[in-house]
Amino acid sequence: xxxxGDYRRKHCSQMSSCSEAKQFLNNCPGMEMDGxxxxxxxxxxxxxxxxxx
Length: 53
What we know:
It is built from one helix and no strands. The chain is mainly α.
């Protein structure tokens, strides 16, 4: 099954986990979850720690 982005959810506050945020960031264009552009989404909210959650 191919993952498809839900275009209504673009922000960290709409994600339930770090892994979900990463899946959206990697598979759905137009996501607004990686402010510093390092490939790790939601670093302040969900993907904390030295290895991105």
